[in-house]
Task: structure prediction
Amino acid sequence: MSGHSKWSNIKHKKEKADSQKGKIFTKIGREIVVAVKEGGADPEQNSKLKDVIAKARANNIPNDNILRSIKKASGELGNINYEEIIYEGYGPGGVAVIVEAMTDNRNRTASEVRYIFDKNGGSLGSSGCVAWMFDRKGVLIIEKTAKTDDDEIMMMAIDCGADDFTVMGDVYEILTDPANFSEVREALEKRGYAFLSAEIQRIPQNTVDVAGEMSESIEKIIDMLEDNDDVQDVYHNANFLDE
Result:
């Protein structure tokens, strides 16, 4: 299971352009709105909001922006209702794709997601058609530096309640049960560790090797979905051999 998280999957792609960072800020801002409406504006009393804030900081979103989003969510955005929807389907070659969306217009989002699949040789399926191929896991990514010791951080992660630990080149990937994610993240934060990524993801149990035109088609589906304003996250089980 290790090595197939969203973090490792994006390594075959180029870094997001600066123009894409605004989209990331917007998407996380929506997550903040939903978290505040569900559990209030105090992160100490709202674990979901606390996790979203950690995700925002891992994406280098300034604290002022985070606080502004929380205030908006509890005030002027109080009349906006975002609905969380999951779409499942297949890309070329039988690659499984899960799309997590957050929308204020279910019909618009469903139509746009279906169009993206159809346009690129994929097909949108029914609920549950591919979800069983993925495990939900908390994923924490820490940068490896000259000062970090592999064995030391591994033992610390396990002591904090992590399920799995992997050295992946220049980063450490720590997996947790979703129920323990906040506890493990906070324990590592208290020990002075910062995260390149901190969120609950869907990790494929097995992967499908893709290359050539099939690889390009799947990348197109993923890119178009990620560019959609209503899409929060995209997960897949493709293993890109071109890289």
Notes: Confidence is low (pLDDT under 50) at residues 10-18.
